[in-house]
């Protein structure tokens, strides 16, 4: 069973360009989470998605950032008009289910390291 | 606000020595607690988790952690460190309002002396 897949692993963009980060969850997992890790810091929650639904985007910047998890295909985190402050590692995680009132283990991908020149 | 504190930014131990990495949290109820390890340039691998029950939790690679409610701590331990354990270790807690929203500590970088 393959783990969580993310691509590209490294992405370089110039200021003002768009960045598209892809995440394929583990087989059988229908819940996807995106986190951002700034240098020398822990991960910070951005967004939680299920198939075709955004459940919680409270950690995502209001502008320039969007996420989707279509019925078919990977989850996409899109950053429009990137700025230097967007340089970070972006991690995707997936889990099989969310039982009521509880949580389930999140399995992380290898991350995409975005560098904005 | 909820938070996770890992007071040690760096720890250096000799190979074969014992290890304890500290984690303290602020939380109003019984937390969901996790330890993850991140090797350089890699993603996070789950070492162990605590949801309920026995407060001493066994994980992979010989690690264990103990949940102490009175101290709001969830320290990670290993009796004998191997050189391959050198990595960054993150403690995380499930958010009180949304348990799927993991709150991470800032990490502890472990160096292992030969």
Taken as a percent bin, the fraction of beta residues of chain A is: over 45%
Work out the strand percent of chain B: over 45%
Overall, the morphology of chain A is globular
The parts of chain B where pLDDT drops under 50 for at least 5 residues are none
| Count of discrete alpha- or pi-helical segments spanning 4 or more residues of chain A | 0
Largest interface here, residues on each chain? A-B, 30 and 25 residues
What is the rounded Rg of chain A?
Answer: 14 Å
Question: How many strand elements of chain B?
Answer: 12
Coarse shape of chain B: globular
Q: What labels would you give this structure?
A:
heterodimer, A: 117 residues, mainly beta, seven-stranded mixed sheet, four-stranded antiparallel sheet, globular, B: 114 residues, six-stranded mixed sheet, 12 strands, 0% helix
Task: Please describe what this structure looks like.
The complex is a heterodimer of chains A (117) and B (114). Chain A is mainly beta. Chain A is 0% helix and 48% strand. Chain A has strands spanning 5-7, 10-13, 19-24, 31-37, 43-50, 53-56, 65-68, 75-79, 88-95, 107-108, 112-116. Chain A is globular. The relative contact order of chain A is 0.33. In chain B, strand 5 (33-38) and strand 6 form a beta hairpin. Chain A binds chain B through residues 4, 6, 31, 33, 35, 40-45, 48, 56, 58-59, 91, 93, 95, 98, 101-111, and chain B through 4, 32, 34, 36, 42-46, 49, 51, 90, 92, 94-95, 98-107.
